[in-house]
Write a structure and sequence with these properties.
There is one protein chain. The chain is of the alpha+beta class. The chain has a domain of 125 residues: Rieske [2Fe-2S] iron-sulphur domain (Rieske Iron-sulfur Protein, 3-layer Sandwich). 20% of the residues lie in helices and 26% in strands. It has a four-stranded antiparallel beta sheet with strand order 4-5-6-10, with no helix packed on it. The protein is elongated, with a radius of gyration of 43 Å. The structure holds FE2/S2 (inorganic) cluster. FE2/S2 (inorganic) cluster binds next to loops.
Amino acid sequence: MRLDGQRGVELEAGGQPKQWGNYCGRMVHSFNPLVTTMDNSKQPGERPDQIVPAAKEKNRRSFFAILAGAIAMLGPIGAGICTFLSPLFRQTQSPAVRVGLLSQVPDDGEPHFFSVVTDWQDAWNRYPRQKIGAVYLIRQPGANAPIAFTAKCPHAGCSIGYSAAEGVFKCPCHTSVFNIDGTRAQGDEEVAPRDMDLLDVSLEELAVEGGDPVIEIWVNFVDYQTGRSTKMPTT
Ligand code: FES
């Protein structure tokens, strides 16, 4: 038996390759699990070009099956995450809070203290009737509506008191004094870095059958940062 050193096939007399290609193809197909197809139309000595390894095909199908499963699972998981985080992106609640009735604030030019109580809601929980601050309402003689100052000191957040005897606001923590119009008694010499914070006020009339209308006082309550010379909301 002679062998062609380059092609690795057995040669017959005269140097022609022996006719054992089909037989070899069937043998390989029968015993080699990696071979799934064989082009038997090839001439002896020609190399088959349509061989697909079975294990490789199986791996490819497994990969796509896993990929499809992962994509199918991502939908519900993503929806769950969005639902959980959605409160973070909800619009914040209105700052308007009903603080009292106009009849509770006589037009005597004196400060009247009111707590600001409202339902409070964070990203996931709701807390009914929480005290979130306090205001002074002042209604000048003949004025229809009062003005409102927050009672939180702009220096470090202590609750400002009112001295009726002296006609000024006083902070108990670091001796800041404010005039009745909310300005600092000593201007920039005062410890507090800015005047008392003025808040927007609106009135709402409720019709009462057979009686005088009831007028509610609503305040746009904003909690401002302390220690700054300018007003900046905390949230
Ligand atoms: S907290 Fe009011 S003066 Fe410091």
